[in-house]
Amino acid sequence: MESLKAYLKDIRNIPLLTPKEELEVAKKVKRGDKEARKQMIRANLRIVINIAKRYAYFGLPLMDLIEEGNMGLMRAVDKFNPHKGFRFSTYSAWWIRQAIGRAISDQSRLIRLPVYMGETIYKWKKANESLSQKLGRLPNDDELAKVMKVTVKKLKQVSSWVSKTSSLEAPIGEEGEDKVRDMVEDTNAESPQEKISKVMDKERISGLLDHMTERERRILDLRFGLQDEKQHTLAQIAKKLKVSRERIRQIEKVALKKLRKLVSAQEKED
């Protein structure tokens, strides 16, 4: 935990690159400039943290996720082509998620979180928050067990699983305002591999939508539920945007074709 705090403190003051600076540094990296490569990596370390936080409950400590993500970031820096029009943040996010995803997948073969435990951890989080507000302090095991209607032994088992991932009180925001416990989600009946795939695919697409028009982004967002996971029919979108159903279908077709090209362009770099 101390290593995580020290790391966050260390990178907090690293200067970020403006779009113009990013382009110039990326060109130098392409020419083999080692100092430029180091600068590009350091300037984007915070992207890794923002992404790694989202996978804090997939079986690896947050610092391990960050280290794996940093490996993905380094590969992204080496493969980035500044002349293709992608912002580096969009391009690198894919490589970072890939690296983290592979690490989680490998780990899940060794330590698998039971499906039912994901739901139990979610209930633990809710009970902990509710009691903390009511009592004005963190609840003890007996109090939590009573609210959750489980034995203290079962509660300790939940705590054991939590400790295998990361400390729930670890500050992860740039100013320490966020905590890992805020990232707990109900995994329901999905396997770790299914959950990883679902999250990564959505985030990858969300990043690529930056290259589309506002209307194209809006339609794909509504059509596939990228923000709220609620998918809309063509008719529903047409009514919401006050255009014909056929027009929505046409825009969706163009947007999906553009999206496939963007995905293909990224995967060719793999």
Word description of this protein:
- The chain has 3 domains: 2-108, Up-down Bundle (Four Helix Bundle (Hemerythrin (Met), subunit A)), CATH 1.20.120; 115-183, Orthogonal Bundle (Arc Repressor Mutant, subunit A), CATH 1.10.10; 212-267, Orthogonal Bundle (Arc Repressor Mutant, subunit A), CATH 1.10.10.10.
- It is an all-alpha fold and 270 residues long.
- The longest helix is centred in the last third of the chain and has 23 residues, at 245-267.
- The chain has 13 helices and no strands.
Averaged pLDDT: 76
Number of domains: 3
Largest sheet, in brief, is: none
Distance, first to last CA: 33 Å
Could you give the order of the helices and strands?
HHHHHHHHHHHHH
Q: What are the segments in which pLDDT stays under 50 over at least 5 consecutive residues?
A: 165-200
CATH-scheme architecture of the largest domain = Up-down Bundle
Number of DSSP helices?
13
CATH topology of the largest domain: Four Helix Bundle (Hemerythrin (Met), subunit A)
The first-level CATH class of the largest domain is given as Mainly Alpha
Strand content: under 5%
Say how many strands there are: 0
Q: Helical percent range?
A: 55-70%
- Tell me the overall shape: flat
Give me the secondary-structure category: mainly alpha
- Give the radius of gyration: 21 Å
Quick overview:
This protein is mainly α and 270 residues long. The protein has helices at 2-11, 19-30, 34-43, 45-52, 62-79, 88-108, 115-135, 141-148, 152-165, 192-208, 214-224, 234-241, 245-267.
Task: Reconstruct the topology from this structure.
Elements: H1 2-11, H2 19-30, H3 34-43, H4 45-52, H5 62-79, H6 88-108, H7 115-135, H8 141-148, H9 152-165, H10 192-208, H11 214-224, H12 234-241, H13 245-267
